[in-house]
Amino acid sequence: MQFNVSLLLKEPTGSTREYGIEDDIAIDGATHRVMGRVRLDRTPRGVLVRADVHGAMDDVCSRCVKPIAYPIDIDIAEEYIPTLDAASGAAIETVEGEEDAYRIDARHMLDLAEAVAQYWTLEVPMAPVCEDDCRGLCPICGEEIAAVGHACSGEEIDTRWSALAKLKLG
Fold first, then answer.
1. What is the pTM of this model?
2. Which residues pair with 153 in a beta bridge?
3. Is 134 helix (H, G, I), strand (E, B) or coil?
4. Which residues contact 105 (CB under 8 A, 6 or more apart)?
5. What's the average model confidence in pLDDT over 66-76?
6. How many C-beta atoms surround the C-beta of residue 33 within 10 A?
């Protein structure tokens, strides 16, 4: 997901380019197929990147541990700042507050992979579920609670607390 923006950096503010994206990207040690569109707009300081990227994530349900796949849809809006001036080749110094900004490298290549990886990570749910009403696994027998034929009473008492069952309240 690299784009050569040398010509765009030489054009006036407001110039645009649009590209389709279909690529594989490595995120957290796994490779994911991503597709979408990207629009590059020339700004006075660099290039504004607006991208619509879609993919899918394979995981396991956090309640019942079944394998699941769910869509990941991200919208990126970031400004990339060049490291070199495209016309003169002079180095562009970073301004205070721009130390962590996305950068266009010395060959005028804009690499969208890092932004996609960061936005992707933000979209991954902390506890994915196969269905909103998934009841998970029985803590006593370990079977899926929603499974047909699950006969566990669910009221088994831990022997360490069995003395409390003899208490008579009120």
1. 0.78
2. none
3. coil
4. 83, 111
5. 95
6. 11
